[in-house]
Amino acid sequence: MTRFELRVPVDAPAARTWAALTDWERQGEWMLGTRVRVTAGDGASTGSELTAFTGIGPLGFTDTMRITAWEPPLRCAVDHTGRLVRGTGEFLVLPRGARSELVWAEDVALPLNLAFAPGVKLSLLRFARFAREYPA
């Protein structure tokens, strides 16, 4: 398992940051090359399942996840349940007054870990812009 943790300041309050982060169907607007869909449950509760495809065209990989903690507007934790991506992930939204900070932490077994973190960092910078403009 490899652990990584990335942080990005967001010029939006915690509630808006949370809403933007957990709008799973729109995650592809800021996460590089990724499309997410809810495959079981409502996507907003423990036990819900998500499927993310990351790649270009048909080339890529699928990451399946089960939500193991749902604590709006502060914390969502997942278990990665797929064949390729295994481990846990956690998304924390830290209130900072009128602003917030997003923390993305993963403990995963994933081939090419070195290429994964830089892509997530760039995506989080894109997320900060997305959340700032997300409808209140």
Automatic annotation (TrEMBL):
CDD domains: SRPBCC
Gene3D superfamilies from the UniProt entry: 3.30.530.20
Organism: Saccharothrix syringae (Nocardiopsis syringae)
InterPro entries hit by this protein: Polyketide_cyclase/dehydratase, START-like_dom_sf
Pfam families: Polyketide_cyc2
Name by which UniProt lists this protein: SRPBCC family protein
